[in-house]
Amino acid sequence: MTTNTATNTSTTTNASTSTNTATNSATDTPANPTRLDFGKSAPKAFRALIGFDAAAREGLDPALVELIQIRSSHLNHCAYCLHMHTNDARKAGESEDRLHMVAVWREARHFFTEKEQAALALTEAVTLVADGGVPDDVYTAAAARFDERELAQVLALICTINTWNRVALATAKVAGTDERR
């Protein structure tokens, strides 16, 4: 998720004094409350994140940028961002074969360069950092294929897509509704 300009309305519900009376007929459970529009509710933070995202991309191969964003979105189960970035990758000329193989890149290494493989491994380690940190071998492999500036850019990009994934998931963005201008 790169530049989201959602138009959802913001509501506040105090659980102790009000209830949501809408129900989902399939499960008879309360429907999800309307989520806030992050860009409108926190415009300075939103603009800062857009700036961070743009700065992170500087000097990186656009195909690599999309591969990183796609893999992080897979791991975070962010359908909104996954849909957006696979479409962006297609528009940039990425092949369907490679797009289908990103989720299983370790079993399909021949689809990706050594540099891309190192970036994908680093993306997984940073995205899943709570599961065991960033292993030395993963970091060393990335450091061997990127110069320091590029490696810092890749790390920044991994951080931005993880943040965008979390914003999209927290605000219940719907896949297929790319709201960028």
UniProtKB/TrEMBL annotation:
Annotated stretches, region: Disordered: 1-38
SUPFAM superfamilies for the chain: AhpD-like (SSF69118)
Comp. bias regions, Low complexity: 1-34
Signal peptide residues on this chain, from the entry's feature table: none
Residue ranges annotated for the Carboxymuconolactone decarboxylase-like domain, each copy included: 43-124
InterPro entries, per database record: AhpD-like, AhpD_core, CMD-like
Pfam family membership, one: CMD
PANTHER family membership: 4-CARBOXYMUCONOLACTONE DECARBOXYLASE FAMILY PROTEIN (AFU_ORTHOLOGUE AFUA_6G11590) (PTHR34846), CYTOPLASMIC PROTEIN (PTHR34846:SF10)
NCBIfam families recorded: ahpD_dom
Name of the featured protein: Carboxymuconolactone decarboxylase family protein
Species: Streptomyces sp. 900129855
Lineage summary: Bacteria, Bacillati, Actinomycetota, Actinomycetes, Kitasatosporales
